Amino acid sequence: xxxxxxxxxxxxxxxxxxxxxxxxxxxxxxxxxxxxxxxxxxxxxxxxxxxxxxxxxxxxxxxxxxxxxxxxxxxxxxxxxxxxxxxxxxxxxxxxxxxxxxxxx
Length: 105
Ligand SMILES: [Zn+2]
Fold this sequence. Notes:
With 105 residues, the chain is of the alpha+beta class. The chain is 29% helix and 15% strand.
């Protein structure tokens, strides 16, 4: 887990971002407006930093369900058990799997 320390410059930037969001503007990263769900999460982080507190974070990649690899048998989402082994497919933790087969792509 990473930690963002609230240095004086970060406190100032966080307060400015919250002021902009409170004025009705969508929070943006560069040219990209953040979608509502992400906006809500980012607001909580900004509130911590603006209050002089550290904010912990983890980073992951969001993949829309339509783009997730699916099992060739049951069409439920699958993932690699070992990211370095391109043949180690397993049903994803959130798959609705009711069968007796091994996952395959
Ligand atoms: Zn399957």
